[in-house]
Amino acid sequence: MDTSNESAFERVQRARHPQRPYALDIFEHVFTDFKELHGDRRFADDPAIVAGFARIDGTEVAVIGQQKGRDTNQRRHRNFGMPKPEGYRKALRIMKLAEKFSRPIITFVDTPGAYPGIDAEERGQAEAIAYNLREMAHLRVPTIIVVLGEGGSGGALAIGIGDRVLMFENAVYSVISPEGCAAILFKDATRAEKAANSLKLTASDLQALSIIDEIVPETQEWEFSEDSAEEFSANKVTAGLKAVLLRHLRELGKITKEDLLEKRFEKFRAMGKWAGA
Predict the structure, then answer these.
(1) Which of 50, 78, 170, 174 could form a disulfide with 69 if both were Cys (CB 3.0 to 4.6 A apart)?
(2) Nearest CA to 10 among 227, 154, 148, 201?
(3) 119 — phi, psi (to 5°)?
(4) Among residues 154, 161, 153, which one has the least CA distance to residue 126?
(5) Does some domain include residue 256?
(6) Is position 14 within any domain?
(7) Would you write out the chain's pLDDT as a tens digit for each of its 277 residues?
(8) What's the CA gap between 201 and 178, in Å, rounded?
(9) Is residue 65 part of a domain?
(10) Which DSSP state fits 209?
């Protein structure tokens, strides 16, 4: 799909399109034998994060993803893809199980951000995110991150620490939404388009900055029509993802656990390094 002339804010709108595939669509069309696990064993189950174990070409892996909803009832049930602390703790529980049984981990990021409600704050939202960052940095199994749609702030980063960070062509990944940025900087959320251009949140921008490792191209079948009542064809939109994941799993499988940790540490330490003139 040729979207090279689109603005950053147009990419944001594509990333938010309600007919883009979500994590459960990927689990169905890229993986087999998906078995979902529920609950954080501390408070509750958070439907905004789906997690469990599956197979990809016979390789057993843990899969974790942020899940939005397509209609009003689903969106309310999934909390619009905004996880609460129990969601992040559930995700980490699955990651620890994967580490125990030497299963690679693949996460799918698609959230406007972590849920900012008072109940989430009361249960330790910031602590849950911070704890995940630390623990994911030390996982002794290969970990692949895929930014599927929106990658919003710490809510995305809480399942975003890995050995490979991939990003779909029209996905976005940023510390804040363009509207939030515009409201803070310009006191006017309607100037979101200007903010989007400044945030460098597109896949091409982030690859140039070495924040992500690879862009997953989107085929022509990703084109959606606002007037079309037809649902997307998930087997078409996931066409290239499986091959990319298998390639990275093979590459990471050849690296020792010690080297895996060291390379992961170096990867994230290098981000944001300033080289003065």
Answers:
(1) 78
(2) 201
(3) -65, -35
(4) 154
(5) yes
(6) no
(7) 545 568 899 999 989 888 888 999 999 989 999 999 999 999 999 999 999 999 999 999 999 999 998 889 999 999 999 999 999 999 999 999 999 999 999 999 999 999 999 999 999 999 999 999 999 999 999 999 999 999 988 999 999 999 999 999 999 999 999 999 999 999 998 899 999 999 999 999 999 999 999 999 886 555 544 444 344 455 555 668 999 999 999 999 999 999 999 999 999 998 877 766 5
(8) 9
(9) yes
(10) T
Burial of 83 (0-12, 13-18, 19+ CB in 10 A): buried
Q: Are 105 and 98 in contact (CB under 8 A)?
A: yes
> What is the rounded distance in angstroms from the CA atom of residue 112 to the CA atom of residue 211?
19
Which structural domain, as residue segments, surrounds residue 78?
A: 25-223+230-269
Split into its structural domains, the chain has a count of 1
How far apart are alpha carbons 143 and 91 in whole angstroms?
13
